[in-house]
Amino acid sequence: MDIMRKVAVGAVAVAGLSFFAAGTAAADPVPAPMPPPLPAPMPVPLPAGTYLGTTNVLGGDLIWKGKTFGPGWVMDNFGVFFPYIFGMTTPEASGSLVTDYSPSGLPFLTDRITPRPDGTYEGTVYINGNPVAGYALRK
Q1: From the centroid of its chain, how far is CA 70?
Q2: Is 111 exposed, middle or buried (0-12, 13-18, 19+ CB in 10 A)?
Q3: Residue 61 gets which letter from DSSP?
Q4: What angle do CA 114, 45, 89 make, to 5 degrees?
Q5: pLDDT tens digits, 44-75
Q6: Alpha-carbon distance 102 to 87, whole Å?
Q7: How many CB atoms are located within 10 Å of the residue 2 CB?
Q8: Can you name the residues that pair with 102 across neighbouring β-strands?
């Protein structure tokens, strides 16, 4: 008997909700608002791959060879004694690409890469937000 009463109460509740929903829908002919549009995707400044680099740091070109990019990451390529530094990249609306080197244990190190009209890229290295070096990349 207890189960029968629960089923009956449930059926009455469902019928009441259905009646209420039908009455609300008939009384409110205004359609629901559209969700806001998704933001436009940011431009990806560098296609994935390895880029050769040169730097304005005295002697830097002897050990630093360039960068390898993938989706959301970058790896700085060095010589034999220091094989690479890994970072996470974030594109900016301006077309630049910012790299955070925290994943390599270097939270004070960032850089910003900007495309040039000639198909090369110009970069600036920052330590604690202060520019300390520049570099250029080419495919």
Answers
A1: 12
A2: buried
A3: H
A4: 90
A5: 567 889 999 999 999 888 889 999 999 999 99
A6: 7
A7: 6
A8: none
What whole-number distance in Å separates Cα of residue 19 and Cα of residue 13?
10
Note the pLDDT of residue 94: 87
Flag whether the pTM goes above 0.90: no
CB 121 within 8 A of CB 134: no
Q: Which residues contact 69 (CB under 8 A, 6 or more apart)?
A: 46, 47, 48, 49, 50, 51, 89
What CA–CA distance (Å, rounded) separates 103 from 122? Answer: 23
Residue 9 reports pLDDT greater than 50 = no
Q: How many whole angstroms from its chain centre is CA 123?
A: 19
Q: What are 115's strand-pairing partners?
A: 121
Q: Is the pLDDT of residue 14 over 60?
A: no
10, amino acid identity: G
Match 């250029």 to its residue by tokens.
136
**Dihedrals φ, ψ of 21, to 5°?**
-65, -40
Question: Tokens 């933001």 — which residue?
Answer: 39
Both tokens assigned to 103: 């994943």
* Contact of 8 with 1, CB cutoff 8 Å: no
